[in-house]
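Following up on my earlier thread - several people asked me to post the actual chain instead of describing it. Fair enough. Here it is, all 296 residues.
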Amino acid sequence: MSESTLAIHRKIEDARELQSVVRAMKAVAASSIGQFEQATAALLDYYRTVEIALGASLRLFGADSYRQIANYSNRGQRAAIVFGSDQGLVGQFNEVVAGFAHESMGTDWLVWSVGERVEPALREFGAQTVHFHSVPTSVEGIAPLVTKLLRETEPLMGHSISELFLIGNRPMDASYGPKIERILPLDAQWIKDRSELRWPTAIPPESIGGPGGLPYLIREYLFVSIYRACAESMASENASRLAAMHRAEKNIQDLMEDLTRRYHRQRQRKIDEELFDVVAGFEQFREHGPTDSSVK
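Reply from S.P.:
Thanks for posting it. Predicted structure:
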């Protein structure tokens, strides 16, 4: 049984309303991408400043000063902060990062998961979730999240945690891809690379407070590293959502075109049926003359 023109018309209106919602979500996602990309770009200069300051401190006081302050050991498990999403409509965003985390870390590791939807995917791979955090809803929410993550992970370094990694998606051209970065402990190569960074002016640097200022610089380095990973993940999330909305908009447009064709066919069929009735009535009138009712 074919649909009525009224039923098809209602479906077209429903599709049109859904199309408006999808376009609004596309606009929000595009705007969010710009905000998080700007936050990441603005952070690069500060990140570079912290690196230069760390390099100067390491040159002044030597790498041993860091080792004495850090006091890290190989005891404990490896751990990672994994960034995913709270909301859906992001394609394989969470599955990609969870699978990459499993490939990179194996099974015996601890997880700080950021994102409601990435946590179940991580559990499927046997990861042990220590803490769960929601994804910030804006750029302003990133700093408080990073502060919480540092407060939870720093006391465990060298005890129940031997290494700390950051795992999340980052923007890549028009798409995104997973990334892993080890941020603790700072190894010999990392110290060597930062120690070789040139001071930007001819005036030699001075340190107030001696090696005691080094922990604060290291904490700033960790803060900026986690902040950047979070901002990159959120930009990637919105890029994935934008791509999903683009596909949805294309599907809705195809559906509307199909419904419109069906609507016109059904309408034409109804018109044809009415014309056939008129023609049939005319033929009957011509053959048999007017009926009694028509004469009256």
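The first strand starts at residue 77 and ends at 83. That should answer part of your original question.
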